Amino acid sequence: EQVYNMRVNIADSALSALLVWILIPRMGVPGYLIVIYITELLNASLSITKLITLSRFGGISPVKAVLRWAALPLLLSIGAVSAAKVVTSIMPPLPMIPSLVLSITLAAAIYGSLSAISNVDILFAARKKACVNSVNIPNS
Fold it and tell me: Less CB within 10 Å around the terminal CB: N or C of the chain?
């Protein structure tokens, strides 16, 4: 695993140097922010994939684990922020700070609700599967 981590870090550094060389002269600070975002995303995704592969998270595949623990929260976040924007757009205009506080509070509440609903569905499916697997059918 240490050799894998070393390779990931070398690839991350090489990509970072290449992107800095290409993007900084053309874009300046926004280019550097793009470099950081891309290289950190690459490093994190490779490291998380290796972690999931090694640990097997309860026997589920790495793809399902990434979908459940990364893609689902991302989609819930996007949905919550979008819903909060829709709600605040139909309301009368507020000053900047109260509007920001309201938007963040709404997004957090909607995210919490969506997260609770999705976790209940995941837990229900897991319990149902466990119950089905634990039922002993007598031989006839």
Answer: C
SS3 118: helix
Determine the Cα–Cα distance for residues 95 and 97; give it in Å rounded to an integer. Answer: 6
Question: Count of CB atoms within 10 A of residue 80's CB?
Answer: 20
Per-residue model confidence as pLDDT tens digits over 96-109: 899 999 999 999 99
Q: Which of 84, 76, 81, 87 is nearest to 121 (CA)?
A: 76
In this prediction, what percent of the chain has a pLDDT beyond 90? 37
Q: In angstroms, how far is CA 33 from the centroid of its own chain?
A: 19
- Structure confidence by residue, pLDDT tens digits, 8-17: 889 999 999 9
Residues 6+ apart with CB under 8 A from 117: none
The more confident residue out of 66 and 85 is: 85
Residue 78 and residue 55 in contact, taking contact as beta carbons nearer than 8 Å = no
Residue 52's CB is within 10 A of a number of other CB atoms, namely: 19
The count of residues in the chain is 140
